[in-house]
Amino acid sequence: MGPRSTREPRCYHWSVLRLTQPSPWEGLAPPRTNLAPRLHVNTGASCNNNCVFCAEDDREGRTRLVGSQSPDDLRRILAAFPCREHVCFTTGEPTLNPLLPWLIRTAREYGYQEIALITNGRRLSDPAYLARLVDAGLDLLTVSIHGGDARLHDGLTRTPGAFAQTVRALRNAAPWVRLHTSTVITQRNLRRLRPLLTVLGRVGVQQAVLNVVKPRGRAAQRAEMLLPRYRDVSLTVASVLAGLGRASPPVFVEDVPMCATEDLPDVVRGVLEHNLRFDRVEHEGSRRYEEFDRARTEGGLRTKRAACAACRYDTACPGVWTRYLEVHGWDGLDPVERRYAGTVETSF
Ligand code: SF4
């Protein structure tokens, strides 16, 4: 077993230290947000889907770096992270990495309290493989699903048969783990959210995250075709949720500027998690792992305008994707009035 009990105080102080610096989350913390840093571990670069909106921009480069990680590299990342609350195995498709059951078991031995996997779910349509992961210690599964029928999902993933396997995986997993989903919202599936959320409600999904497509990698090249207007996303989700009620799992909308989401209840919008990952970096002939947070991976790809300074979300907001602005401009992205924070004096 790893040194479990001694790590928790470090995690606490590390989190507090992080969060007392100018906080990128201030004002964006709905009740369900867990601001403790979550470790994301990249398990490889290959994938058995071929999504039209994939945000990977340099799969070959990632294959060289991430794909050549040794088991010892991965174990050292798990051992070095001071906060043992949550670890998530992710990108490319983690179930293609034969080390995955060992990684989950190792994370459990190091004392991680919640062990999660982000996957397209296809391999989990095999109950025996799912059982291996659950036996190793998996307790939270986030399955990527992008449409409520085979035509839409298989079209967006460009993988015939993917929908049937992914839905089978959701059904297999529901009795054994906490079950979340992640859906990339594009122009093609925005108007067809209702059937998707109905399917997810039926198979026992406990939380559905709707991520608006990030215009980077392949998605940047097809931004005109893929990117919906943020205000359309907000209005459509509000209307679908009002119509579905409890037939839908709880929904959370991500990757939309807060100024475009005023139609949504606070519990549905904002920042869901704070995650960090460590990538191997080649530097002057030596290799080392460096921390990549959102600012580092998305910095330079987002823009603000002068009017943003008057917005109540200005401190927290990372800005709007520059590629989005090239397609849709600032229409519908107006500063939100600041709430009054002082004292009101009255006289009679
Ligand atoms: S700071 Fe600008 S982009 Fe961000 S939420 Fe406010 S108006 Fe929108």
Q: What structural category characterises the helix and strand content?
A: alpha/beta
**Would you identify the CATH H-level superfamily?**
Aldolase class I
> Which sheet architecture does the biggest sheet show?
9 strands, mixed
Proportion of residues in helical segments: 25-40%
Bound molecules: iron/sulfur cluster
Q: Which stretches are low in confidence, meaning pLDDT under 50 for 5 or more residues running?
A: 1-34, 344-348
Q: What is the averaged pLDDT score? A: 83
Spatial strand order of the main sheet? 7-6-5-4-3-2-1-8-9
Strand portion: 15-25%
Q: In CATH, what is the class?
A: Alpha Beta
User: What is the fold-level CATH name, i.e. the topology?
Assistant: TIM Barrel
SSE order:
HEHHEHEHEHHEHEHHHEEEHEEH
Helix count equals 13
| DSSP strand tally | 11
**Would you identify the CATH architecture?**
Alpha-Beta Barrel
Radius of gyration, rounded?
Answer: 21 Å
Task: Explain briefly what this protein structure is.
By secondary structure, the chain is of the alpha/beta class. It is built from 13 helices and eleven strands. α8 (193-203) crosses α11.
Describe the structure.
With 348 residues, the protein is an alpha/beta fold. It has 13 helices and eleven strands. The protein has one domain (16-299): Alpha-Beta Barrel (TIM Barrel). The strands form two sheets. It has a nine-stranded mixed sheet. The protein has a two-stranded antiparallel sheet with strand order 10-11. Helix 8 (193-203) crosses helix 11 (230-244). The radius of gyration is 21 Å and the shape is globular. Residues 1-34 and 344-348 have low confidence and may be disordered. Iron/sulfur cluster binds next to loops.
